[in-house]
Q: What sequence folds into this?
């Protein structure tokens, strides 16, 4: 049994609840333990994972949040930089599943977050488990 930390940027409660439900179902269904940490926004997720990884209390991480395109360039910054930060940590050997949704509107967010539809929370959790398995396989 591995220990996973879900780091969520709680900005859209309804969608985050769905993402977390999907991620928890996947992780707990595989026999792993799960804790949830909430941060202010998607840009804070990589930093929070980096800090938690230093503690060595968790074996893997799931990044969850929703970024909906607005009228300004801020969407591109948040979407790109949060993904870049997560990828950098992954390249350092940290098992992270990226479930930060970057969408155009509420309808897209709802479909992608819902475990009964696209289940992106569950998909991110399964990605984190797969990376952890690879790390163990290659002696990480």
A:
């Amino acid at each position: 049994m591995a220990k996973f930390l879900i780091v969520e940027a709680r900005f859209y409660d309804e969608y985050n609840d769905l993402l977390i439900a999907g991620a928890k179902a996947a992780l707990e269904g595989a026999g792993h333990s799960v804790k949830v940490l909430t941060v202010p926004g998607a840009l804070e997720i990589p930093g929070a994972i980096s800090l938690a990884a230093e503690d060595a209390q968790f074996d893997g991480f799931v990044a969850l949040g929703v970024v909906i395109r607005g009228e300004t360039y801020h969407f591109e910054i948040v979407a790109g930089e949060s993904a870049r930060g997560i990828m950098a940590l992954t390249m350092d050997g940290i098992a992270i599943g990226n479930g930060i949704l970057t969408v155009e509107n509420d309808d897209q967010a709802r479909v992608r977050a819902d475990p009964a539809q696209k289940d992106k929370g569950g998909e991110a959790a399964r990605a984190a488990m797969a990376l952890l398995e690879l790390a163990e396989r290659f002696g990480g």
Residues 74-91 form the longest helix (18 residues).
